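Continued from yesterday's entry.
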Amino acid sequence: MAEEKKAKVAKAPKLADPIASTIDIASQEMIARAQTLGVETIFDRAVNMKPCAIGMQGICCKNCSMGPCRLPLPKDGIEGEDTRKGLCGATANTIAARNFVRMIAGGAAAHSDHGRSVAEVFLSAAKKHTDDYKIKDYDRLLDVAPYLGVATTVEVDGEELDRDLDEIAVEFAEKAMAEWGKPEGELLYAKRAPAPLYEKWKKAGVIPRNIDREIVEIMHRTHMGVDQDYKNLMKQGTRAAIGDGWGGSMLATDMQDIMFGTPYPLQAESNIGIMKEDHVNVIVHGHEPVLSEMIVAAAQTPEMLEYAKSMGANGIQLGGICCTANEMLQRHGVPPAGNFLQQELVIVTGACDAMVVDIQCVMQNLANVAKCFHTKLITTHPIARMEQDNVIHIEFDEHHAMEDAIRILKMACDNFKNRGADVVIPKQTATQIAGFGVESIKYHLGGSFRGDYYTLNDNIINGRIRGGAGVVGCNNARQKHNDGCITMIKELIKNDVIVLTTGCNAIACATEGLLTPESAAVHCGAGLAEVCETVGIPPVLHLGSCVDNSRILLALTEMVKAGGLGNDICDLPAAGSAPEWMSEKAISIGHYFVVSGVYTVFGGMLPTTGAPVFQNHIFKEYEDKYGGMWDMVVDPIEHAHAIIAHIDKKRKALGIDKARDRVMMDFAARQAL
C-alpha cells in the first residue's frame, strides 16, 4: 500500500531560475512574481518539458500513419553508406529535406497571408470602399508602382501627363492581389533583385510563378510517396522562400508604408516598465498592423481619453508585443512592452486591462495567465481563435475598423476598475531610436543631395565600417532570453560591423540600450563609432517587423547599385543571423536570405543535423549555386566571429582588406569623384 501511495504522488513541477532564464531585469522580476503567485509561464514549462532529440535533428517523419518513423544517428556516427530508412524507404536526407521545406512553407504562408490581408484592405482603401483607411504616402506608391508594371504617366495627344493617383492605386492593388494566384508568368518583384542574382534564379529555375502555388506545391511534394530527392525538394523550398522575401513580405511592407505612412526615425521607450499604473493599459500583440493602426488612432481622440478618465484613469497607455509592437512603434512612437517571451509577463504585472491579439506567435497560455488577473484577452482575426471560455472574440472588419477599435478600447476602460490592489510594474525602460528604412538610411548616410548608399559603401571600403549584418528573428525558451542576440550583436559592433535588425531581436536591442546614437561610443570599435557620431545614428538600426526583412534585402540591393562592392549581393561584406530563432517564419526568412546570396548563421539547433549529406547541401553546396549558404553556431561569441570571418573573406576578395589612408581632398579630386 505504501508503494502504491508513493506512486500516486505527483512530483511538483520545477520552477525556472529567473536569472538563468533572461538577461532582462524587468523580466526576471516578473518571472519571480509569477512563481510567487502560482502562475505558470513558458519559462517554467521549458524546465519541465524537454525537447525531442530526434525531432530536433530533423529525422522524424510523421507524414503518414505508418509512422512516426524515427531515424536516429548512430552514436559513433556514420561510416560508409547511410542505411537508415523509414517504413516506406525514405532516407534520412529525404525526411530532413521534407521537414525543412515544410517549415519554409509554414513560414512563407504566415508572411504571405499577412501580405494578402494587407492587400485586401489596400484594395478597399484604393477603391474607397472604406472610410477608415486611406492612401497616405503617394510618393511611395509612385516609387514602387513600376515594379508591378503600373504606369505612372499617360500619353495624351503626344504629351506625357501624370496619371490620376487614385487610378494608379487601384491598378497597383489589383496587380498586387494577382501576385498571390495568377495562372501564368512569374513573380514581378523578383526583378527588384540585382540583375546577376535574378539571372542565377532564372538559370536554377527557382523564380516563383505565384506566391500561393509554391507553398501548395511544397505540401504536395512532401506528401507520402511524392518527391524523394532532397535536392529537388530544396529547389521547391527555394521557390517558396523567394516568394516570401521578394513577394508576400515585400508587398506587405510596401502596401503598409503606402497606407499607413513610410516610417522615419523617431524616439520611444521600451520594456515592461512603459506600462502606467494610473492609465488604462492596452497591449496589442501579433503581426498585422491593420487593426492596431485604428486602435492607435482611436486612443488619441478626445472622446476616448474622456471616456478613460470617466472610468477613473488618467489616460490610455498603448504598448505592443512582437511585431505589432514594431509596426506601431515605427510609425507612431508607441512603445513596445516586450518581445515574444515577455507576452505572459505583461499580464503578470496586474496592470494589463486588455490584451488584443491578431495572428502569429500568440501563446495559447495567455488565456490561462489572464484568468489569474483581471485582463481581458481579445482575439480579432477569423483564422486565430482560442478554445478557452475567458477569451473574447471581436472579429476585425476593415469596413468597420474604427468602430471595432472603439469597442475594444471602451472594454479596456470599463475593466480599469476591476484591477486588484496588487499591481507591480517593473521600473526598467530604455530609450530607443527606431523607424529606419531604405529611404532614411539613404538620407542619413547620403545626405540631401546624394540619394544613394555611396557614403555607406565608401566607409566600408576605407575600413571604418568592416561590413554589415542583418540580425533578426525570435526568442526561444530553450535559450536564455535575449542573451544570444545581445552578446552576439555587442561583439559585432565592437568589431566595426554595423547591424540592421527587425522583429523580436530589435526589441531586445531596444531594452538593452543599443538603439541610441550614444551607445556607439560605449560599445563600438573606433571606426563604426566615428561614423555613428558623425551622422548621428545608432550602431544598430531598427528596420521594423519581421515582415520588414524585405527592407534589408533592398538595402543590400542599394549597396550593390551604389558601386564599389561588387556586382551582386553575394559580393558584399555582409551576413545574416538569427541567434535565438524559434518559428517556421525564421526558416523561410533564413532561406530567402541564403538564396539571395547572404551567408546566414542560426543560433540554436537547426533540424538538419541528423542528415549530414542534406546539411552539407544547404551549408556548403548552396554557396556555389546562389553565393549564400546556411551555417549554425550556438555560442554567441563564436557566432559573431563566424560572421566577422565571412566579412573579412569578402573584403579580401574585393581587395579592400587593408584600411585606406585618409587623404585631404582638393577641388580636382572632388570633381573626379
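--- second protein ---
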Amino acid sequence: MSIREQRERINLWLYDSKKRVLSTLRIVSFFVSFAAVATIIYRHGFPVTDNEEHQLFVIIQASFAFYILHYFIKFIYDFKPLDFLRRNWFEGLLMLFLIIEAASYHLFDTILISNAISKLGFKSFGRFTNLFLQLYLLVAVGIDLGKQAVRKPKFKIHPSNIFIITFVVIILLGTFLLMLPEMSIQEGSMNFLDAIFTSTSATCVTGLIVVDTSAFFTFKGQFIIMMLMKLGGLNIIAFGASLNIFAKLGLGMRHHSIVEDFMFNESVFSSRGLLVKIITGSIIIELVGALMLFLLVQGSYPTGNNGDAFFFSIFHSISAFNNAGFSILEDGMCGEYGKHLFLVHFVLSAMIFVGALGFDSFFDLFGVSKLRERLNSPWKRPKLGSLLNLYTTVILVIVSALLFLIFEWDNTMKGYRYVDKVITSLFQVISMRTAGFSSVDFHDVTLPMIIATLFFMFIGGASSSTAGGIKTSTFAILALSAYSTIRGKKNIEVFNRTISKDLLFRAFATFLFAISAVLVGIFVLSITEGDILAQADRSFTDLVFEVVSAFSTVGMSTGITSSLSVAGKITIIISMFVGRIGTLTIAFALSKNIKSTNYKYPEEHMLVG
C-alpha cells in the first residue's frame, strides 16, 4: 500500500470526527487564550509572592502544552498535511521554538535566547528570563485569535469605523496596562487621566507627556509604551494596505478612491504584498537603527549597563521611526546626557525622515525593483505623489534648518561648535515637523522660531506615514493651486502632470478641518488654563503651541503639559486622537452617503477676496 493510499485511509477514518474536534478546539482555545493573557498580565502587573509566581508559571506552561497539542491536532486532521505546513509555516516555526525552549528550561533550567543575551553582557535582562517564553505564548495566542476573527461578519462595517475602533481599543488596553501597580515606580498605580493621556500620546505617536517617562515608569511600563508606539505607528501605515481584510468587512470599490489618499493606486490592488513589506520593512529599519544607536552609546550610557543601553537603543529606534518622540533619558534629549549625543541625533534624524516620508514613497523612490526598473528604462520615473512628498519634505527641511540656524545661533546653540550647530539644527527641524524629540528647551527658543515651528508642525509629514499634520501632499497641492491662480492658469500642473479637481477639493477639506480643530482646541484651553496664563513666564503662545503640537501629533512642548488642568488634559487627549484619525475619517465621511455625483448645476460668478 502506497503512502498516498495510507493517508486516504487515515483521512476517511478522521473525517467523521474532524468537524466536532476542531470546533471543540476553537472553543477551548478561546478560554485558554483568555487564561494565558490574564495570567501574564497579573504576573507582570501586580506584585506576586514566590508561591504565586510558581502557580502562575504552571498555568503558562499548561498553555504552552495546549498550543503545541492544538497545532499537531490541526496538522493531523488536515487532509493535505504538507500544504498545511506551507500555509502555517510561521506558526510551525513558533511551535518548534516553544518545544526547544520548553525542553531547555525543564532539562537545563535555562532559556536559550535569554541565556544568549546574558552572555553578550546584557545582565539586566536576567530577571525577565521567563518573559521570552511568555512573549512566544502571546504571539501564539495572537495568531490563533486572529485566525478565528477573520470570518466574514453578518453585517458591514464602514472602514472609518474600523480605523477608529482599533485606535480606541489599543488606547484603552494601554491605559489599563499602564495603571497596573508594577508599571510605575511609585507605590500604587497611575491615575486614570494620566494613564489615558500617556496611552493616547503613545498610540497616536505624539510624545506629549504628563510625567517623566524615565523617572515614573518601571522597565515594564516603558516596555508597554514602546509597544503602544509600535502598534500605533503600524496601525496608521498598515490601514490603507489592508483592503483584502476590509473586503470581508464590507468595503466596496467606491471606497478605494478614498483609501488612495493614503496608499497609492497601484498599492491598493496589491495590498497583501504591501502589508508584508510594511511590517517586515519597519522591523528591519528599526533593528538597523537600534544597532547603530547601541554602538554609539555602548560604554557611555549613564547606568554603565549594556542591557540598559540596548533597551535605550530599541526604544528610541521605535520612537524615532514611528515619529513618536518618547524618550527614556532623564529630561529627554535636552538633558545633560542626551543634548550632546550629536551622532545619536544624526541617526535619529535619518530614522524620523524615513518614517515621515511614508512607505509608499520610500518603496517607490528607493525600492530595489523600482531602482532597477528605472535603470533599465530611464524614461520611467517615480509616481507624482512620491516626487511631491520628497521635494516638499526636502524644501521644508532646508528652509526650517536655515531659520533655526539664523534665530538660534547665539541663543539655544550658543557655545556649540559649527558642525554641532548644523547637526542640532537638522535634528531639531526634522524632529519638530513630525517626531517631537528636542535637544533644546523650547521655552527658551525665540518667538520667530516658535512661529515657524507652528507652521512646520501643522504641515507634518507625508501621507501613508507615521507622521501627523495636514501632510506634505496637502500643502503642496494648496501651494500649487495658489501659484496656478496667481499665474492665471486653469489647471494645477506639476512635473508635466495635471492634478485633478477632486484632489484639490480633498486638500482644501483637510486644511479647513485641521484649522477648525486647532482653533477649537485653542479656544477651549484659553478658557480652562487661566492659571498657566497667569504665570509671569507664560503666554497665550504656549497654549497655541501645545494644541498645534497635539493635533499634528508632534509632541513638542514649551513645558506646560504636566501643568494642564483636568479639562486641559482632556482637550489635548481629544486633539491628539482627532489629529491622528481625523483626516482619514473626514475623507470617508464626505463620500459615505453620496449616492451620485454625475450632475452639475449652472455656474454663476461671485466676488472672491
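Residues 278 and 359 are 7 Å apart (CA to CA). The longest helix spans residues 3-45. Will compare against the first tomorrow.
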